[in-house]
Specification:
Layout (H helix, E strand, L loop, with lengths): L2 E6 L3 H11 L5 E7 L2 H11 L3 E5 L7 H9 L8 E6 L5 H9 L4 E3 L4 H12 L7 H10 L20 H11 L4 H8 L3 H15 L4 H10 L9
Parallel strand pairs: 1-2, 1-3, 3-4, 4-5
Helix pairs in contact: 2-3, 3-4, 7-9, 7-10, 8-9
GO molecular function, one term: DNA binding
Pfam families: GerE, Response_reg
InterPro entries: CheY-like_superfamily (IPR011006), NreC/VraR/RcsB-like_REC (IPR058245), Sig_transdc_resp-reg_C-effctor (IPR016032), Sig_transdc_resp-reg_receiver (IPR001789), Tscrpt_reg_LuxR_C (IPR000792), WalR-like (IPR039420)
Length: about 220
């Protein structure tokens, strides 16, 4: 079955461009469009898309609040949110990730990158370039703990190896890179990442990276 996509952007011309790109792919289907966050919520309830391509800065309700409502505890469906932004260092992107977005992509990204991002997010993975993960969290380090705060109790539920994996995820390493760093198989890394997400109640590795910084486990700027 085709991946059902909802386009959310306050610029009709951009929505038209995205639609043309996505409808050229046999496994993608654009099921609707919305011009602001409130319309997006209505469309998600009515159309039950798999992925919402979400702009951040929109009238009436911005993409951060819309993302929070779409992916929160009272969500109406399984939709994943892929945030679109004009700037790769947008403070709202961090808030969108905290709100539950599965990743973000620049609006001027190549068409094949946009298509691949939707497929990745639809499959339940996170879409966020490692370098961007670090830059985002480092740039907004002032909003995050200094590392001197007490470690949250939930962190103590992790094994020593799971903590190691979480630190590497926060640094933006892929499963393959983590496997090479720890001298284990990629399958083993996937298992550890799965355990980390389950124990901490997180939805994907993007939220895991944010958690690692917010808990003080990883300090902004540290290698």
């Amino acid at each position: 079955m085709a991946i059902r996509v909802l386009l959310v952007d306050d610029q009709p011309l951009l929505r038209t461009g995205f639609r043309m790109i996505l409808e050229a792919e046999q496994d993608l289907a654009v099921v609707g469009e919305a011009g602001d966050g409130l319309q997006a919520l209505e469309q998600v309830r009515a159309l039950q898309p798999d992925v919402v391509l979400m702009d951040i800065r929109m009238p009436r309700m911005d993409g951060v609040e819309a993302t929070r409502q779409i992916t929160g505890p009272a969500k109406d469906g399984p939709a994943k949110v892929l945030v679109l932004t004009t700037f790769d260092l947008d403070e709202y992107v961090v808030e969108a990730l905290r709100a539950g977005a599965s990743g973000f992509l620049l609006k001027d990204a190549p068409a094949d990158e946009l298509v691949q991002a939707i497929r990745v997010v639809a499959a339940g993975e996170a879409m966020l370039a490692p370098s961007i993960t670090r830059r985002l969290l480092d740039k907004y380090a002032g909003h995050l703990p200094s590392g001197e705060e007490s470690v949250p109790d939930t962190l103590h539920t992790l094994t020593e190896r799971e903590v190691e994996v979480l630190k590497l995820v926060a640094r933006g390493l892929s499963n393959a890179e983590i496997a090479a760093d720890l001298f284990v198989s990629e399958t083993t890394v996937k298992t550890h990442v799965g355990h980390v997400l389950t124990k901490l109640g997180l939805r994907d590795r993007v939220q895991a990276a944010v958690y690692a910084y917010e808990s003080g486990l990883v300090r902004p700027g540290a290698q």
